[in-house]
Amino acid sequence: MLILTLIIISLANFSIKKSNDSVLKQRAINTRDPSICDNIIGNTDKYLCYEYASDKLNNPELCKNINSESGKNICYKTIALHMRDIKVCDLVKSIDGYSREECYSNIANLLSNPKICDMITNSYSKELCLDYASR
To answer: Between these two residues, 66 and 8, which has the higher pLDDT value?
Structure first.
């Protein structure tokens, strides 16, 4: 019985922390204050908080607060697309399928600007980029 009680208390505490994280994330986004993200306990909510806040504020510097490289890359890529700025793509590292070249390709396609494809070194990726950006 004691073990069951401890499990229930642990689940309740986890639920409260998760709820608090969601409230903090929403407050950071609504108030445009990314420093609130620092108070979030859960890694996923903290990552999403910084990603949303950085996108809303058009501030790629906030992506540096995300612990995982793949999370940072997604954050940079999101901001690059939102801002339509290939300079932000330069911050993307080539891991987990979110490569810098993919970022260039997405912006080239978004802007219908095949010249951006010249920044891509992989010949197959460059060919695809040129095809989509030229449409």
So the answer is: 66
Task: Spell out the residues 6+ positions from residue 60 whose beta carbon is closer than 8 angstroms to its own.
Answer: 54, 75, 76, 79, 80, 88, 91
Which of 28 and 132 is assigned the larger pLDDT? 132
119 is written with which tokens?
Answer: 């920044």
Q: Hey, what are 9's tokens?
A: 């208390």
* Positive or negative torsion for Cα 4, 44, 50, 69: positive
Cα separation, 23 vs 73, whole angstroms: 25
| Helix (H) / strand (E) containing 70 | helix 69-83
Cα separation, 73 vs 56, whole angstroms? 17
Residue type, 87: K
Domain edges within the chain: 13-67, 85-135
**In contact, 73 and 93? CB cutoff 8 Å:** yes
